[in-house]
Amino acid sequence: MLAKGSHFILQGGYMVPVWLEAGLWGTVAGLALVLGAAAGFYLRLPQRVIAGVTAFGSGVLISALAFEMMDKAYERGGIGATAGGFLGGAIVYTGANWWLSRKGAKHRKRSGNQQVSEEEHGGSGLAIAVGSALDGIPESILIGTSMLQGGVVSLVAVTAIFLSNIPEGLSSAAGMRLAGRSARYVFSLWGGLAVLLGVAAAAGYVIFGMFSPPVIAATTAVAAGAILTMLVDTMIPEAFEGSHTFAGLITVLGFLAAFALSKLAGE
C-alpha cells in the first residue's frame, strides 16, 4: 500500500475507501504515541530533554487548533457554533479529567515521580488508560472530519498531531516506568490506543458526514476546546517544570513550525 499525495492507494491502483483512509491516517498519528513511549521507557532521557520536547509539541498543537480547527470551524459554521462547541469541549474535558484525576490519572503525562503506582492507588492503571484515550480521541475525530470536504485529509493536521503525540507518549511512559508499570502495560496501552484513534478517525468521517456544516463546525470546535484544555492541564505543566526559562521559547518554536507548515501547504 502506498501513500500518494494525501491518499492511500493499493497495489494495482485501487484507492482505499475514504472512511478506511481516515482510519489509517488516525492510526498513523496514533503510532507516534508508541514511538514516544519507546523512547521514554527505554532511553532514560533527562527530564529537561523530555520537558523541551513536550514544550515543542505543545506549541505545535496550539498552532494546529488555532489554524486547522478553530479557523475551519468558523468557516463552516460561523461564530455561534464555533464558540459553543469550543466552550462545550473545554467543559466536558474538564469534568472528565477531574473525575479521572480522583481515580489516579492526574499526572498521566508527567515524566517524573508524580504518577502513582497501582499499589498506591488501586485502579489507577485503568484510569490512566481511559485518560489517555480522552486526550487522543478529539484529535482523531478532527482527522476524520477534515476529510469531509473532498475526501482529502489535512496533512497539516496529521503532521501536527503526529509531532505532538511523540512527547505525549514520551513523558507519560517515562513516568509510568518510574511508577513501576511494566513494559507490557505501557506498550499494550499505547498500541491499543493507536488502534482506537484509527477507529475514532474513521468514525469521525462516517458519523459526522451525515450532519450539517454547523454541526460539523461545532464538533471541530469541541475537539479544539478539549485539546487546549488538555494542553494546559497535562502537557504545559510538564514542559514548564523541566525547562523553566526556556519553556516559552521552545513552545514558540513549535507553534512557528506548525504555522509555517500550514501556510506552505496552502500555497
Structure description:
- 78% of the residues lie in helices and 2% in strands.
- With 267 residues, the chain is mainly alpha-helical.
- The protein has a two-stranded antiparallel sheet with strand order 1-2.
Keywords, please?
7 helices; mainly alpha; two-stranded antiparallel sheet; 267 residues
**What oligomeric state do these chains adopt?**
single chain
The coarse silhouette is globular
Instruction: State the order of secondary-structure elements, H for helix, E for strand.
Output: EEHHHHHHH
Strand content: under 5%
DSSP summary, beta strand count:
2
Tell me the radius of gyration: 18 Å
Characterize the largest beta sheet: strand count, sense, and whether it forms a barrel.
2 strands, antiparallel
Summarize the amount of helix as a percent range. over 70%
Structural class: mainly alpha
Average pLDDT reading: 85
Strand arrangement within the widest β-sheet reads: 1-2
Number of helices: 7
Distance between the termini: 28 Å
Regions with little confidence, pLDDT below 50 for 5+ residues: 1-5
Which helices and strands appear, and what pairs or packs with what?
Blueprint: E1 2-4, E2 7-9, H1 18-42, H2 47-105, H3 124-146, H4 155-178, H5 183-208, H6 213-243, H7 247-266
Antiparallel strand pairs: 1-2
Short description:
The chain is an all-alpha fold and 267 residues long. 78% of the residues lie in helices and 2% in strands.
